[in-house]
Design goal:
Elements lengths: L2 H8 L2 E7 L2 E5 L4 H7 L5 E4 L1 H5 L5 E3 L4 E6 L5 H12 L3 E3 L3 H8 L1 H4 L10 E3 L5 H7 L7 E4 L9 H4 L1 E2 L5 H15 L8 E4 L5 E4 L6 E3 L1 E7 L2 E7 L11 H11 L6 E8 L5 E8 L10 H7 L11 H14 L4 E6 L5 E6 L4 E5 L9 E3 L2 H6 L8 H4 L3 E7 L9 H15 L3 H14 L14 H9 L7 H16 L11 H17 L5
Parallel strand pairs: 1-3, 1-5, 5-6
Antiparallel strand pairs: 1-2, 3-4, 7-10, 8-9, 8-10, 11-12, 13-14, 13-15, 15-16, 17-18, 17-21, 18-19, 19-20
Helix pairs in contact: 2-11, 4-5, 16-17, 16-19, 17-18, 18-19
């Protein structure tokens, strides 16, 4: 971040929506952001409901000067009123009303980036007849939305038009979209050319295709933070040349705080899918603490001391969590992982094809001092770490302890002493890797199947019973009775049973 931008960023204030039933508390959907922002910035609250009625009600800390709003979307006229009411109190929102409108509404920014984003046409009406007129002369597949939002989670009912020339299909989708948007309909109908994108899976609930996508927050013409749109804890696969391309786009943006949503096309290139005002754009997979650290010019790299990491791992283990800390070292293309268990820790090179498997150590201190695989010694090479992350997150761990404890309590209530069964089943199912979906698909690709199989099992299940559970579940999920016959599931069932017996005898899962 440029020095002049950093000086502005570190002195920003933030304003959040208050809870609709308790105006002195933050809206529960923004609780974590509010906590994270408050570590380094002053934060105020306001009543969104009062603002809808033209009244500004402020709570929390007193703020002044340049401020970023983080909360629910507003129509441009409401934002303009909000901006002016705050200005009367000495509070200036980061984006002018005209800047908010330009990037909140697709027609505002489209012409500036035409050719870098899917071809689009639109009108200023919500009439179905006017919408059908938009389809004239178009060919191929299109996506329907209004100036702000689509109904992508109703992909086949109110979003995706397979053949725009099919009047019956187009009319059905357009009518559903307009009717279902209701009061949330903004501007007019927009038709965007459907692009062939690099797929990473299918949304389990809606059937919507999921592609490799990224959300980029841009602050005063510079990339503030970038992360995956769908995949949590997965590395951002953007090259240095692509970052330079994104920076060239960011430099053309006529607003101080904006989001760019990018997708990777089937041919490997990136395309702009959406732009939005950064104040009303969700974080998606970006950790809230990481996001607000970015305003302090703290990158995602290694921001932790050895002592902090050791202490956090040990505390997570005491809670009953098995933390997984992933490390990347300068000059080394591989990823490495430390896993903490109740009675030992392990270190490994990650990878389905070149992974080393877990190498065990009695204590964390022993691991950190040892010469590990590939000549790595964490204590000696700590300054070479260029990226580090943990599952669960160890960012501002002190603020998350209670959250993790509640997660464990809930998990224990649901699973009791059967929780290790799921871990065993997941481990073996992922190794089995039907259809070879991993590692290209998300790492939780088979978690739904593994969880349902584990829920149907007990420690007393036989190999045949386990094989039947696997066969039934995968046949139901993938509709392939030949691939997942009872006989074909016996080997994986034997592995699961063997690991369950090992756990009963040793109190831990086999490597």
């Amino acid at each position: 971040m440029r020095k002049e931008n950093f000086e502005i960023a570190k002195n920003l204030s933030f304003i959040f929506c208050s809870h609709p039933l308790n105006k002195k508390n933050v809206d529960e959907d923004y609780f974590e952001e509010y906590q994270a922002a408050g570590l380094n910035h002053t934060c105020a609250l306001f009543s969104f409901e009062d603002l809808e009625n033209g009244k500004l009600s402020l709570y929390g800390e007193d703020i002044e000067g340049l401020t970023i709003y983080r909360g629910w979307m507003m129509p441009p006229h409401m934002y303009e009123n909000f901006y002016n009411l705050l200005l009367e109190r000495g509070i200036q929102l980061i984006n002018l009303p005209k800047e908010y409108a330009k990037y909140h509404l697709l027609p505002g920014w489209y012409s500036d980036f035409e050719g870098l984003t899917p071809f689009s046409v639109w009108n200023k009406s919500r009439d179905i007849g006017d919408a059908l007129e938009l389809t004239e002369g178009l060919e191929g597949a299109f996506v329907v939305k209004d100036y702000v939002k689509s109904r992508k989670h109703e992909w086949y009912d109110a979003c995706f038009i397979k053949d725009i020339k099919d009047e019956k299909e187009s009319g059905h989708i357009l009518r559903n979209f307009i009717n279902r948007q209701g009061e949330n309909f903004e501007g007019g109908v927009v038709l965007r050319k459907y692009e062939s994108l690099k797929s990473i899976g299918i949304h389990k609930e809606s059937g919507m295709p999921i592609s490799e996508e990224y959300r980029i927050f841009v602050f005063k013409g510079e990339i503030l933070v970038a992360d995956n749109y769908w995949n949590e804890n997965k590395e951002v696969n953007i090259s240095e040349d692509e970052y330079m391309w994104i920076e060239s786009i960011a430099s053309r943006i006529e607003s101080n705080f904006v989001t760019i949503d990018l997708a990777r096309k089937a041919d490997g290139s990136l395309i702009i899918m959406e732009m939005g005002d950064g104040q009303v754009s969700g974080l998606q997979q970006i950790d809230a603490y990481e996001f607000y650290r970015a305003f302090q010019n703290q990158d995602k790299g290694n921001i932790y001391s050895i002592e902090y990491v050791k202490e956090t791992i040990n505390e997570l283990i005491k809670m009953g969590i098995e933390p997984e800390v992933t490390l990347c070292f300068r000059g080394n293309e591989s990823e490495y992982m430390i896993i903490g268990y109740a009675d030992h820790v392990s270190f490994q090179r990650c990878g389905y094809y070149d992974g080393s498997g877990e190498i065990e150590y009695k204590t964390l201190d022993e691991l950190f001092k040892s010469e590990l695989i590939d000549g790595i010694c964490p204590e000696r090479d700590w300054n070479k770490i260029v990226d580090i992350w943990c599952s669960p997150s160890m960012i501002d761990f002190e603020f998350k302890k209670d959250k993790y404890k509640k997660m464990i309590e809930k998990s224990n209530l649901e699973w009791g002493d059967r929780r290790p069964i799921f871990k065993i089943v997941k481990k073996e199912i992922d190794k089995w890797n039907p259809y070879g979906l991993l590692p290209d698909c998300p790492q939780d690709e088979f978690d739904g199947e593994s969880m349902r199989i584990a829920m149907d099992m007990t420690w007393d299940h036989t190999v045949d019973q386990i094989a039947k559970c696997i066969s039934d579940e995968f046949t139901f999920s993938f509709e392939d009775s030949d691939m997942f016959s009872f006989k074909s599931c016996i080997p994986i069932a034997e592995n699961i049973k063997d690991n369950m017996d090992y756990f009963i005898k040793n109190g831990r899962i086999k490597k």
